[in-house]
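hey can u check if this looks right to u? its 141 residues, i copy pasted from the old doc so theres a chance i mangled smth
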Amino acid sequence: MTNEDFFRKACETIWNQGDVSRVHEFYAENFQAHYPALGPSWGEGPDGIKGFVTLTRTAFPDYHETIEDVISSGDRVVARMTNRGTHRGPLPFAPSTGKSFEIVDIAICRIENEKIVEQWGLADLFTMLLQLGLIQPPLAT
């Protein structure tokens, strides 16, 4: 299986299906996430992934990532995705709004021995918060 195929399978199994029982198949014990806007909310290792997937899918039960583009070279996979969901459950900072979002997410994964060891990313959380009505757009000048 290529690293691109492996990444696609991990995305579908863990994030789209929400099958956290299979996290250890895809994420290394020493997994590290680097998402500046999310801070330490991912936690570390497979347990961190399980917690973050559970939090995400509790707040957005229909959460789905569509992979739009993939570039794979050596041990790195870079993906541009469209993430969607409907806010039906609580977030740590907000009750359910019932509104939907659609944002761009860029992820860069380092894969070793068919395990994701590190992941860097930047999701458009500002747009998500606007679409959910949790923040107001800045005033136009």
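Strands lie at 27-34, 64-73, 76-86, 100-112, 115-123.
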